[in-house]
Design brief:
CATH class of the largest domain: Mainly Alpha
Radius of gyration: 26 Å
Largest sheet: 8 strands, mixed
CATH superfamily of the largest domain: Tetratricopeptide repeat domain
Strand content: 15-25%
Number of helices: 22
CATH architecture of the largest domain: Alpha Horseshoe
Shape: globular
Helix content: 40-55%
Structural class: alpha/beta
CATH topology of the largest domain: Serine Threonine Protein Phosphatase 5, Tetratricopeptide repeat
Number of strands: 14
Number of domains: 3
Distance between the termini: 26 Å
């Protein structure tokens, strides 16, 4: 969901606030940053930009921007002052021992300053919980009693008011009353509101003396439903069998409590999933494996013309549409599998933002795959990636239809999903000629050793002076290679500018389907296609010493190795050579035990 830069300020703010409630910090960050960069004077946008970073777990950047935006100077803005408490609290949760208690004490002081503005229950209850965590139980209980008698909590009129009441009750040793209040919360809370409350109550309940049953009752009441990635068989529309399957899909969604889903829109199961999510007022995120016109020809119209109108209706109502590739269908089936992988990865990313899990729902007959794509392939891939998978029987739907044929596809080289890496050395063009031999030894030498260390994972490599192009088997290996390159060159410097960012390797990473073929000039195996070109347009935008990735790379990595790597959202970035704007992430190695 992007805000229209030409829309009225009030409209832009309403859209941003909606993204906040929905628990979509990426959209919130883009909207708020866009308004700030456009010169909007409303300080709420500066607050929301910092809040979005905090929600994404990028505490260090949020702290820097909090200072840069001078939010502490907004002495009558309760939310702005409370946000500093939240940043201290996030730092406390990442610390241990005395450092943890000291950070919680700073958080409590910040929240109490916000509470003093107009005695709002939100900073009040946070002042209480952070004071308790800092070891000041007396202040925590006093503040909790003050929160409980707040007029906005008697009775609570909103979900957050109910959550604040529950936190106060928990601090006062009344967990069952807290669980009962949360179970009856007004409005039930949006996904973002639930996620924020779940995170807060998770650390609070973990350290308090209560039974496991009480803890579970409290957390179950506020955890958002799983994020769905769906797949299933294509079939011809048919009233009775389709209605029965639609009922089974609805039961599965309701049992999970899920209203956010990622997937394609093929005739049959895909569209039934999409319609069910939309009917529940949920968020549908469509993942197109390739361009719309060939997708309709291959995956929608074969089931009957009625599906095309339903496809169009779902597409119009979708919260977002993401193209796995902006290319035509080339007929080898791998594009569908890659699209399903991307949907799973995006679901996993969103699940991380909302403190929940990703679940694959599959309408599948249980039979083995009959080709390179389809429900069986997607289920196997999902399980291999560690996704929880629930299978729904297709029943008696009519799967006897004529599939579109692409006779020319047999003559094309293989197109397979691979990780793509581009690097160059910022400052290389300013190096004196006498330094170039040393550069070759001291920069490209370590790069070569990193690639050699990863052996067969490196499918192809090539260099041009300071630049490297490599194709790698999977995202985890590519992430390791990129980080090892940056780490191996951390102390290399040739330019004495006094500005560290003026020099160093910068890297772009992407994951997508590429052609594999023999290079007619070199005689070696090479990889090419539009996804290679896209990656080449990302790397020049990276900051020296940093690794920028596409959303596709971040999503697949989130499923492949979530415990080892983190991808921090940078924002929507203008790519080099007029290649458009794309959501970009920064790759980091995850600290042991990191969230």
């Amino acid at each position: 969901m992007d805000a229209d830069p030409t829309s009225a300020p009030n409209d832009r703010l309403a859209l941003a606030e909606s993204a906040r409630r929905e628990g979509n910090p990426l959209a919130l960050y883009d909207m708020a940053r866009g308004a700030v960069e456009a010169g909007d004077p409303n300080p709420r946008f500066r607050y929301l930009q910092v809040l979005a970073l905090a929600q994404m777990g990028d505490t260090a950047r949020a702290q820097t921007l909090y200072t840069g935006h001078a939010l502490a100077d907004l002495t009558t803005d309760e939310d702005a002052l409370a946000l500093l408490g939240r940043l201290h609290k996030d730092q406390a949760l990442a610390a241990v021992g005395a450092a943890r208690r000291a950070r919680f004490a700073q958080a409590a002081q910040a929240y109490q300053r916000a509470f003093a503005v107009r005695s709002g229950y939100f900073p009040g209850v946070n002042a209480a919980t952070t004071a308790w965590a800092a070891g000041d139980a007396r202040s925590a209980r006093t503040l909790a009693h003050r929160v409980l008698i707040h007029p906005d909590l008697n009775p609570p009129a909103t979900f957050f008011a109910t959550a604040a009441r529950a936190e106060a009750l928990i601090l006062l040793g009344r967990p069952r009353e807290a669980a009962a209040a949360l179970a009856l919360a007004v409005g039930g809370g949006g996904p973002g509101e639930k996620a924020a409350t779940y995170r807060q109550l998770s650390w609070l309940c973990a350290d308090l003396d209560m039974t496991a049953d009480d803890r579970r009752s409290i957390l179950d009441a506020v955890q958002p439903g799983p994020i769905i990635t769906y797949t299933g068989h294509m079939f011809v529309a048919g009233a009775e069998a389709e209605g029965e399957l639609n009922a089974r899909i609805g039961l599965a969604l309701d049992a999970l409590g899920s209203t956010i889903a990622y997937g394609a829109l093929a005739c049959g199961a895909d569209i039934l999933f999409a319609e069910s999510i939309l009917a529940r007022g949920g968020e549908l995120h469509v993942i197109m494996p390739f361009l719309i016109a060939p997708f309709i020809a291959v995956s929608v119209r074969p089931g009957g013309e009625a599906w095309v109108a339903r496809f169009d209706a779902c597409l119009r109502q979708a919260a977002s549409v993401t193209f796995a590739t902006r290319a035509d269908y080339v007929g080898n089936g791998g594009e569908f599998t890659y699209g399903a992988q991307l949907a799973s990865g995006l679901a996993r990313l969103r699940a991380g933002q909302l403190a929940t899990r990703a679940v694959q729902l599959a309408v599948w007959d249980g039979l083995p795959a009959r080709g390179r794509s389809g429900a069986a392939v997607d289920v196997e891939a999902g399980r291999a990636m560690g996704l929880e998978t629930q299978v729904i029987s297709p029943g008696a739907v009519d799967r006897d239809f004529v599939r579109a044929s692409f006779a020319d596809s047999a003559t094309l080289p293989e197109r397979i999903p691979r990780a793509i890496l581009f690097t160059d050395y910022q400052g290389y063009s300013r190096l004196p000629e006498s330094v170039i031999p040393a550069f070759n030894q001291e920069v490209m030498g370590p790069v070569a050793r990193v690639l050699n260390h990863h052996g067969d994972a490196v499918c192809s490599r090539n260099t041009w002076g300071d630049a490297l192009f490599a194709v790698i088997s999977d995202t985890a290996a590519a992430a390791d290679i990129a980080l090892e390159i940056i780490e191996s060159l951390a102390t290399v410097r040739y330019l004495d500018t006094g500005r560290p960012d003026d020099e160093g390797m910068r890297i772009g990473l992407h994951f997508g389907p590429v052609y594999q073929d023999v290079d007619q000039v070199t005689g070696l195996v090479n990889f090419y296609g539009s996804e290679v070109t896209l990656t080449a347009r990302i790397e020049p935008q990276a900051v020296s010493g940093q690794i920028y990735t596409t959303q596709a790379f971040a999503a697949i990595l989130a499923v492949a190795a979530p415990e080892r790597f983190a991808c921090r959202y940078v924002g929507r970035v203008e790519l080099a050579k007029g290649y458009g704007v794309a959501p970009i992430y920064q790759l980091e190695r995850r600290a042991p035990g990191g969230a």
